[in-house]
Design goal:
By secondary structure, the chain is α/β, with parallel strands linked by helices. The chain contains 14 helices and 19 strands. It folds into two domains: 2-188, Flavin prenyltransferase-like (Rossmann fold); 198-400, CoaB-like (Rossmann fold), CATH 3.40.50.10300. Strand 16 (326-333), helix 12 (337-347) and strand 17 (352-357) form a beta-alpha-beta unit.
Length: 401
């Protein structure tokens, strides 16, 4: 067995990035982000709001970026006074990290009362924000509305993450770690190895109704499929995620179509073709109730028999199309993994199949995977699902190439 080979890392070299820092305790993490961007070869100009300067001094960013930090619209010393136009005209990316609740509100309303918000409004480049705020602020209705508006305006939203917050509370609202933001940038810039490719992914369980209030489902959490969607988006693909019921947030830059049953999932998948790649991660129910009852079934002491019929196999159907995308299957087995997985791969004629032991993976945050392709088996030792998903995408890119 060999491990998944790597692909050429996507370079941020030559990319002109404006790093906007707004006010929040996560501003200190922006210093590390600035360092990582420079290390990756980007040409970085830092712009700070007045509030950001209460947390970190401009000198820190000046030392890291090797350039003066811009802080004011009214700096007479800065050229012709049109810095807001020149800077955002030349840039490839305007990245606001951290983006406070207040700054997101400003952006959503198109306000331009300081240099950073003016740059955002006057930009001709991609805008990405990495929100950071207290969990109550993140969950507040105005922030939800502002986020929705920003996404409609085409702004890439990176994170936030869940975890312990500076205020002592725990929840969603922490800025993504600098390394995570860096990993997402090739996707945001459409510069990753899957740039220009459409990737269609299924995830989660399906729910097969028995009557209006009951149904058959399984223990799939959707975590692996969502991680694969995120990794594909990071690699620059245009990603559509057809998902059964889960409680997971849609990854940044991913279009999600929510479905319930296997039949719904099949319809949604076929409607999204053609695609360059199809990755079937969903735990699709193999059977459905022949005729779901239109009204709630009343209990009886006689017991009950459900008549089940086979569901269509979505992956097999897509893989058999004359213009089939590059198809990747998943196989969750409880025993004899290699034997069952390889049999499934050959039966469905898949160039790549990901095998795992169901009892080790279901609902967990980590997974141990084995990739099966024409060259043999490639073991991915246990790691968190996002790391595994990134390995899988690298492997897939190598095969595509
Ligand atoms: N799959 C699908 N549609 C189905 C069933 C499975 O698209 N109706 C996909 C899954 O998303 C996964 C792969 O096929 O990628 C799993 O293959 P399959 O042989 O169907 O696995 P199981 O359903 O687990 O088979 P078995 O129950 O026989 O182990």
């Amino acid at each position: 067995m060999e491990s998944a080979p790597g692909i050429k890392a996507v370079s941020l070299a030559d990319k002109k990035i404006i790093l906007g820092v707004s006010g929040g305790i996560a501003a200190y993490k922006a210093a590390e982000l600035c360092r990582l961007l420079i290390k990756a070869g980007a040409d970085v100009r830092v712009v700070m709001t007045a509030a950001a300067q209460q947390f970190v001094t401009p000198l820190t960013f000046q030392a890291l970026s090797g350039k003066p930090v811009l802080t004011s619209l009214w700096d007479a010393a800065s050229g012709d006074g049109m810095e807001h136009i020149h800077l955002s005209r030349d840039a490839d990316l305007l990245l606001v990290a951290p983006a406070s609740a207040d700054f997101l509100a400003k952006l959503a309303h198109g306000r331009a009362d300081d240099l950073l918000s003016t740059l955002c409004l006057a930009r001709a480049c991609t805008l990405a924000v990495a929100p950071a705020m207290n969990r109550e602020m993140w969950a507040a209705a105005p922030t939800r509305r502002n986020l929705e508006q920003l996404q409609l305006d085409g702004v890439s939203v990176l994170g936030p993450a869940a975890g312990e917050q500076a205020c002592g509370e725990t929840g969603l609202g922490r800025m993504l770690e600098p390394g995570e933001i860096l990993a997402a940038l090739p996707g945001v810039l459409n510069a990753g190895p899957l740039a220009g490719k459409r990737v269609l992914i299924t995830a989660g369980p399906t729910f097969e109704p028995i009557d209006p209030v009951r149904g058959l489902t399984n223990l799939s959490s959707g975590k692996m499929g969502y991680a694969v969607a995120r990794a594909a988006a990071e690699a620059g693909a245009e990603v559509c995620l057809v998902s059964g019921p889960t409680c997971l947030d849609t990854p940044a830059g991913v279009r999600r179509i929510g479905v319930q049953s296997a039949a719904d999932m099949r319809r949604a998948v076929l409607a999204e073709l053609p695609s360059d790649v199809f990755i079937a991660v969903a735990a699709v129910a193999d059977y459905r109730v022949n005729a779901a009852a239109p009204q709630k079934i009343k209990k009886s002491t006689d017991g009950m028999t459900l008549h089940l019929v086979a569901n269509p196999d979505i992956l097999a159907e897509v893989a058999a199309l004359p213009d089939a995308p590059f198809c990747v299957g998943f196989a969750a087995e409880t025993e004899r993994l290699a034997e069952h997985a390889e049999a499934k791969r050959r039966k469905k004629r898949l160039p790549l199949l990901v095998g795992n032991l169901a009892q080790d993976t279901l609902g967990e945050d980590t997974a141990e995977l084995v990739l099966f392709d024409d060259r043999g088996q490639h073991r991915l030792p246990r790691a968190d699902k996002l790391t595994q998903a990134r390995h899988l995408i690298r492997h897939l890119v190598n095969q595509l190439n």
